[in-house]
Amino acid sequence: MNGTSQMDGTSYVSQCAVPPGSSFVYNFKADQAGTYWYHSHEKSQYPDGLRGMMVISDPEDPYKAQYDQEIVISISDWYHGQMPDLLLKFDQPDNRMRDITPDSNLINDTVGAKFEVVPERTYLVRLANIGGFVGQYFWIQNHAMTLLAEDEAKEDATANFPIVSRMDTGSFSSHVPWPKNLDAVAWLTYDTEADFPDPDVLEDKESAYALDDMALEPLDKQPLLEPVDRTLAIDIDMKTQEDGIIHWLFNTISYRTPTLPSLFAALATGPEATDPKSFERSTQTFVMEHGQIIEVTMNNKHMWKHPLHLHGHNFQVTKRTKGLVETTPEGRAPMRRDTINVNGHGWVAFRFRADNPGVWLLHCHMEWHAHSGLKATFVEAPLQLQQRLRLSNVSATLDPSKACDPGRVQVISSIEESVGVFDGTDGLTRHAYLHPTPLLIAVIALICSLGLICAYLWRRSAGTQEGIYSRVPMVDIEENDKPNAAEPP
Ligand SMILES: [Cu+2]
């Protein structure tokens, strides 16, 4: 999303929400190869299904020669209720921040998926957790997996092997019932006629074998960014707010959706956009200067893990603690991520260069926590941003309550080459989407009209010649249904 903050898709951060019956064209340059997923960033909609995986292929994939085929796998927790109802239950004063635990666990949005494979071939597995809440441990039974490298297992080609994704119980409060079944199971399928065995029973200690992502090193070996120009210390905390409900907070602020999208505020306020006070306080806005190296330290004051996600950057993770153990890259180039798990009562530190002018969210990717306020806004290089983007109607932002009325304000890119040639209209488009209801009514009306015309023509033809149905003997049902007078009562 470098250079196209207005296409980031975060409602009331980079755009207005897309109203029913409208469409929004996301126009951006897919120049960052990898395995991603997309999802709604409005009203906790994505755990109900408004999400999917997105693969950006690399024409110069350095591992291309090392695998034969790709398998794309999503894993996700799943709720039998829908989010609007679950949020009502969640937002109760007597709910002491007990996250609602999922009912089920899915691989590729189903139970018992089968991935057919051929012996001796090597597969690249692209894996993403697209769930709303729980972290997962993933393994394929009897198969060694190497991250972005060859799978060297030689297994029985007449058997099938369980693929397991297990919910990380470190996400759950001990005060709520845990899901009955933590595992999602699919099968690596060599032979569709053979058995599909249950996975081996493992004690819940598999996390000891899990990959420590701090040990990863990026291929480009980007050196540690230094010196740090600015340090942000952010505590993860929770506290009862004025609505009587316990909310999550970054430092002392629980994020509330602003009336005016923060990007609109950054573009409408001129030089004052460098002042955090130009943004609604509840958006917890940090303003960064162009090119600064920022180090963010996030300190978890509670016992649960949080997957912290920053939009607009792949940051270098420089430290993470677990208990009393502190892990650093130790002489390697630091791994780069856009999401990092912070452990219970632990902390993480990450760095990035503020070279992507835009308005970007930092938030926990557990939807209960994000919904409950665990979000902050990074306004990055607003003066440079104002040179790239402008508003179609600045004065319309003076009444924030109306700024998101349909058609009122558009964000316009000043540098078209940032996204190349595009022959459509990007951004919010009114009535571009044909709603299915009027379409359905039109089709039904057409069918009914044709039916009436046919019936009329048939009746006319029946009057002039003997139709086939005229030979069917007519039965007077009422007469036949009368009791037979000869039978005794
Ligand atoms: Cu969280």
Automatic annotation (TrEMBL):
Source organism superkingdom: Eukaryota
Domain Plastocyanin-like: 2-60, 70-150, 256-382
Biological process annotations from GO: cellular response to iron ion starvation; reductive iron assimilation
Transmembrane segments: 439-458
Keywords: Copper, Membrane, Metal-binding, Oxidoreductase, Transmembrane, Transmembrane helix
GO cellular component, one term: high-affinity iron permease complex
GO molecular function: copper ion binding; ferroxidase activity
Recorded family membership: Belongs to the multicopper oxidase family.
PANTHER family: IRON TRANSPORT MULTICOPPER OXIDASE FET3 (PTHR11709:SF361), MULTI-COPPER OXIDASE (PTHR11709)
Name of the featured protein: Iron transport multicopper oxidase FET3
